[in-house]
Design a protein that fits this description.
four-stranded antiparallel sheet, Beta-Lactamase, 53% helix, single chain, 238 residues, alpha+beta, 13% strand
Length: 238
């Protein structure tokens, strides 16, 4: 082995020992403060700085990073709180609705106005209930368009993202070409029920408004409430 190779090996071993020692004795420089003034580290400006100055710079950078993360967390918390309040108010309005017409009107108007939705559509499967006769948006189970949503209905959970052309046309009709992303919410009675009353679709012109990786908890809560409200209006005797 050459002298240079031996020296490199010894230096690497010594460096490892020093690192291990400092990790086991983090108060070493507190007991030897004079070393902090003697140690010099290269700086991006080309000037040498003391270890203390380097530590201060690192801590300042870490503080900036943590501050940015905290601001993002606070911003997201505020958005979630506002969204929670909006859905709570929406649910109360749905519970007070005295007819199927009122339910549909509340959903379409409040989602468009308060949730900044560019398109809101409710598709209800025809149960034969008299209250549904006045609503052309009803889709029968035998409709060909239903096939485009079978997997979503079977999954029983909201999904978000870009839709296929056939799905867009079935839901949004003339507005289909303007919808960049959407949220689809199956209106199922419960996680254990086989009954599905239809689907709620919320569309946006923004391709990034509804992403496939976004959380859907609030959407599911809204869908659960709407399904129960629909059950009341679609199963009661008239």
């Amino acid at each position: 082995m050459s002298t240079q190779a031996k020296t490199t090996r010894i230096d690497a071993s010594l460096e490892s020992d020093v690192e291990s020692f400092l990790q086991k004795h983090p108060d070493f420089f507190e007991r030897h403060p004079e070393l902090l003034r003697q140690l010099k580290l290269p700086h991006e400006s080309g000037q040498a700085v003391s270890l203390i100055e380097k530590q201060v710079a690192v801590l300042r950078e870490q503080n900036t990073t943590l501050k940015t993360r905290l601001e993002r967390l606070i911003e997201n918390a505020k958005k979630n709180e506002k969204l929670s309040q909006q859905i709570y108010a929406l649910n109360l309005s749905l519970l007070d609705a005295d007819s199927l017409d009122s339910v549909i009107e509340i959903i379409e108007k409040r989602l468009s106005r308060e949730f900044n939705a560019d398109a809101v559509v409710i598709r209800l499967f025809n149960t034969g209930h008299p209250a549904m006769a006045a609503h052309p948006e009803i889709l029968d189970w035998d409709e060909p368009a239903l096939g485009a949503f079978e997997k979503i209905i079977a999954g029983r959970k909201p999904i978000c993202g870009s839709l296929k052309p056939g799905q867009l046309e079935s839901l949004f009709n003339d507005d289909a070409g303007h919808i960049g992303s959407a949220a689809l919410i199956p209106l199922v009675e419960s996680d254990h029920s086989t009954t599905c009353y239809g689907m709620l679709a919320i569309g946006s012109h923004d391709h990034l408004r509804f992403r496939s990786d976004m959380g859907t908890l609030f959407l599911k809560h809204m869908g659960d409430i709407l399904a129960r409200v629909l059950r009341r209006h679609l199963t009661q005797d008239q």
